[in-house]
Amino acid sequence: MKRISKYSAFLLACVLTLHSCTKDFDELNTDPTAYSQANFDPNYLLTTAQLTYTGSTDFSYETWRINLIYCSTMMQQLSTVIGYWAGDKYQLTPWYTSAYWDVAYPEQVKPIVDLVEFTKGKEQYKNLHQIARLTKAMIFQRITDLYGDIPYSEAGLGYYTQKYFPKYDKQQDIYTDLLAEIEDATNKLDPAADRPIGDVIYNGDIAKWQRFGNTLLLRAGMRLSKIDENTAKAIVQKVQGKTMQSNEDNAFLKHDATGGRPTVNRNSQILLGDGDARTYAKWSNTMIDYLKATNDPRLPVISMSKAVFNTTGSVPSLTSASTNPADQKGMPNGYDLANTRNINTAPGYTTMADYSQVNINLIAMDAPTFILTYAESELLLADAAQRWGIGNAAERYASGVRAAFTYLQQYDPAATLTTAQADAYLAANPYSAADGLNMINTQYWVLTASMLDFYEGWSNWRRTGFPVLTPVNYPNNATGGTIPRRLPFPVSEANTNPENYKAAHDAVPGGDLLTGRVWWDKQ
Prior knowledge:
Elements: H1 8-16, H2 18-23, H3 25-28, H4 43-53, H5 61-74, E1 78-80, H6 94-97, H7 99-119, H8 126-147, E2 150-151, H9 158-161, E3 168-169, H10 171-188, H11 206-222, H12 229-238, E4 251-254, H13 266-271, H14 275-280, E5 281-283, H15 285-293, H16 299-302, E6 303-310, E7 317-322, E8 357-358, E9 368-372, H17 374-388, H18 393-406, H19 419-428, H20 436-450, H21 454-464, H22 493-496, H23 498-507
């Protein structure tokens, strides 16, 4: 499982010197002892892009700020009283909201664009090239989902095209191209061709990449369900029978705790390794109350309360905690440790330790980062069936819930839940077509929380409006007490790419604010 460790040393070197890896090809080619077009192994670029997609090598820079500080708390999956966790209270901290953009372009976009260009037209890298295209699409989908119009068609191509100030493409155009790229790359994967050795997600298993590609196409297509229903429906029809078939197809990257900062799990680095987060980042009462109300067996697997940690070692270790469902208690969003809305004034407050936090099962330093799962696929297909009658919504829903229970053992055997437990839950909480979209997408919300993929939880909530969340209205928030819909562009772009930035900034529906909207988030 620890496939990533053997690439760690080269990977870190490549991340730190990525610019020169391509910029100096001409000079390198004159030195027979250096890397060149003839002896450079592009598989390492795939490893780099896959790892950095799970978070920055710079102490989880954007994972901390966007996935955790903003997305998790805006969606009331997590809650916190930490003052600088601005998302919990809909406050704008521009140097935080720009974090994903600031890191993704140099650490994710640059290597994956290099890889696509380097392998283009080379038969020995046929599958590597298609996997690179899929990875590139996955990377750009997250960036555009966060910000809307972004540099896309010209991004990362400065060395090749001498365009150092890339234009911002319209999100509608980006999605049109993403869908075409994903479909074409998936169709061109060839099980009889090369098996990429730099693949730390599927270890070069092309059949799994084919199912991944069709599932990624499904997720991208369903993002358009309220802005371009016909395209979304057409995509769902295309992928019938071609998406992930079981939890064995789950795409995840298993981290390596021995490699230091560059290779450990990014969420764990914060939720376990940072003292503030370990003490004050909790599951929201919205999440815990829902799990308790439905008697959900996932509750003791993903949460723990009354936790005591030993912090004398290099990595904090859990000394004791309660996983008894009766002891689990969610913390309300919109409180602080100061006098504005002090948590000790919250209804039912006892002690901070009584609030539930993420279970150690999910946040070991070598825990996997889940990228795309069978459970997501089935719930998206259930959504499509409920909306448009493409398939059986109840069957897809049940399949998705079962997968969302049983995949947890891929974190740790201690997190194992059985199909029997899932079936008992489904029997006690039967599917209702009258409330189908709410049920499906509330399960998606729980699933993305257990995956710690809060980016996806926020995107799917903006697409569907489910679950129905009651916003907080913290004093002097930036949205008038409404849940944010997008992240503003980095203000640094006004200086580094001024003309392209201004045009995009002025065109954002609702303004370049937390209350603005991306194209597919139609009102």
